[in-house]
Write a structure and sequence with these properties.
- This protein has about 120 residues and is α+β, with helices and mostly antiparallel strands.
- The protein has a domain at about 60-119.
- It is about 35% helix and about 15% strand.
- The protein has four helices and four strands.
- It has helices at about 1-15, 20-25, 50-60, 105-115, and strands at about 65, 75, 80-85, 90-95.
- The strands form two sheets. Strands 1-2 form a two-stranded antiparallel ribbon.
- Strand 1 (about 65) and strand 2 (about 75) form a beta hairpin.
């Protein structure tokens, strides 16, 4: 019984170690995220689980976003967009400062490759 008490005490003491400074990590561009399990994939087109979705949402920015207070649709990677009169065609103008893998194709083409996992 005494050995069990010692083991439990040691476990308790080691679990009370100092945590990671999230503010410092964020300034350094480090993403810290607690998950219940390791993600199976970080490819948005292959992801099916909540674990992956949480990380993917933190890593990737979409064409549009929502204002946190009003939930109004606002630009993200797209600086502007148009919707056809029949509502079937959406045309997005990709922001010039959008980051994609460095190649010599246009930002629009890169986006399509990402969306359809062709790159």
């Amino acid at each position: 019984m005494r050995i069990l008490a010692i083991v439990l005490s040691l476990l308790f003491l080691t679990s009370c170690s100092e945590g990671i400074d999230a503010t410092k990590a964020a300034k350094e561009g480090v993403l810290i995220m607690g998950n219940s399990a390791d993600p199976a994939t970080l490819d948005p087109s292959l992801s099916t689980g909540l674990t992956e979705a949480k990380i993917i949402n933190a890593l990737f920015e979409g064409l549009l976003s929502a204002d946190e207070e009003t939930l109004e649709i606002i630009p993200a990677q797209a600086e502007s967009w148009e919707i056809s009169q029949d509502g079937k065609v959406y045309t997005f103008k990709i922001s010039e400062n959008a980051y994609w893998n460095p190649t010599k194709i246009s930002n629009s083409a890169k986006l399509l490759l990402k969306l359809f996992s062709l790159d």
